[in-house]
Amino acid sequence: MVDSLHTYLEEKTAYIETHLVPALEKEGVPASLYESMKYSLMAGGKRLRPMLVLAVLEALEKPLERGVPFACALEMIHTYSLIHDDLPAMDDDDLRRGKPTNHKMFGEATAILAGDALLTRAFSLIAESYLANADVQPTTTVKLIAELGKRAGATGMVGGQMADIEGEGKKLDLTQLEYIHQHKTGDLLVAALRGGGYLAEANESQMRALTHYGFCIGHAFQIQDDILNVEGDEKQLGKAVGSDADREKATYPSLLGLEESKQRLDALITEAKTALAEVGLQHSALMPLADYVKNRTK
Amino acid sequence: MVDSLHTYLEEKTAYIETHLVPALEKEGVPASLYESMKYSLMAGGKRLRPMLVLAVLEALEKPLERGVPFACALEMIHTYSLIHDDLPAMDDDDLRRGKPTNHKMFGEATAILAGDALLTRAFSLIAESYLANADVQPTTTVKLIAELGKRAGATGMVGGQMADIEGEGKKLDLTQLEYIHQHKTGDLLVAALRGGGYLAEANESQMRALTHYGFCIGHAFQIQDDILNVEGDEKQLGKAVGSDADREKATYPSLLGLEESKQRLDALITEAKTALAEVGLQHSALMPLADYVKNRTK
């Protein structure tokens, strides 16, 4: 399974990356803005959100191509959030995935605008692409946009980022930590699963299962992030290990200890997989993808 | 007409402002983020973009309420662009409409996130609201979102802002100046007109006329802005007169002279009104609104 998962991840990553640059507009866009958008969009990464969209379509035996615009839109939103998070006024990071951050390469003003433009393009990409695709009902398109906006905006990812910034240097309890991570990381994963569900015409019980799976792996993703910050390999991670402890940042290991964090992680992955099995999706790639969230080393 | 236009503007501004705050989400949003979004959204302004949406619906005898979500979304996008433009890395402004800019009130990180959240909310507001409104076809909603994204993003407003920043301190010719202003200012006005047209079920010739009117008043708006920066009243404008000349910024008066700029302004307003008259819309409020763009003193 590890070998076939590895192949699966490589194939799907290549498939997604083929579609990302063509999904940007170039004609009529100032060259520096376009280059800045492309730079961050193509700077690597796990492509987990688009991969989940494709895996849902696959699981429900629908054509993968149908998921491409929504998958690319999710990756654009994820990318814009990283560009803005790295800004001097936010986390002030110079490196991202071992490369200079967007504002280090292009300057702060361009980085802000590239983020704004990627966020805007995510929505227009969905609207334009599905308007021209007879396989997807306009109502489905509107639902996708409502879902994405809710999970990416003030009630979702942006809200999580705000809470994270406000929590810096404060003693957070587990409830506050979970609020931050559910929104900052989990919500966009849930959007991937639910959006995939809309596109694949999932029935109500499948939709509930996909949503629950999304919440579980989102939560698990963050626990594993925190664990890797304690005992990961700096080279594989591309960032410093121990930085959370140095900054006295609230994390799962700092609040629960490493052992209990690992137990929670295991339980969440089991819960995610059980939810899928209950609606007959135990043979889909979503099962090994849940394990991947737990077992990843970067 | 001046008196009745004044009443019209007051009534419509009040109507729009009643709907803006309820269009934000509050539940589940960190309080500081919500306050920051509300602060800039309610900091005044002409509400020109939402007003144009309502005027199109009125002109084509459709219920105003149908335009409210799209009108509020436009104002959110306009507001986010002002918040981000005022940031230290961009124009570095301390005051906006006589009040402290968002980052002066809430800090830079919150201002960046409030902008991101307003931009995201614009799209989810349209999607959610029209999904629940049987008067608006889902296809229309998808068209509205495609239109808004195209005019607000890299090919539109964000592209214009990028070109503006890159043009600073350089000698621009009229073509470059017009590129900047068409995108930075004009495109969102065009989106208001065309979006209004979609919502009002305008026919093809009406749609062409509305689009042309939008381009003309967008262009006129910017010429008048430049003229006011030469001979306006600082108190009414709420900003310093002569700042463009001090910064050696390319403007219509600096490239064409004041007289020719005024002639162009007149010609554009006439062209905008003629376009409407040709499709039988000579009695709509869009006619005095075109004059307002020319005659405004702030």
Commentary on this structure:
2 copies of one chain form a homodimer. The mean pLDDT of chain A is 95. The first copy, chain A, has a two-stranded antiparallel ribbon with strand order 1-2. In chain A, a hairpin with a 2-residue loop joins strand 1 (95-96) and strand 2. Chain A contains 15 helices and 2 strands. Chain A starts with a helix and ends with a helix. The first copy, chain A, is globular. Chain A is mainly α. Chain A has helices spanning 2-23, 31-41, 48-59, 68-86, 102-106, 108-131, 138-152, 157-167, 174-199, 204-231, 234-237, 243-246, 252-256, 258-278, 286-295; strands at 95-96, 99-100. Chain A has a single domain (2-295), classed as Farnesyl Diphosphate Synthase, CATH 1.10.600.10. Chains A and B meet through helix 2, helix 6, helix 7 and helix 8 of A and helix 2, helix 6, helix 7 and helix 8 of B.
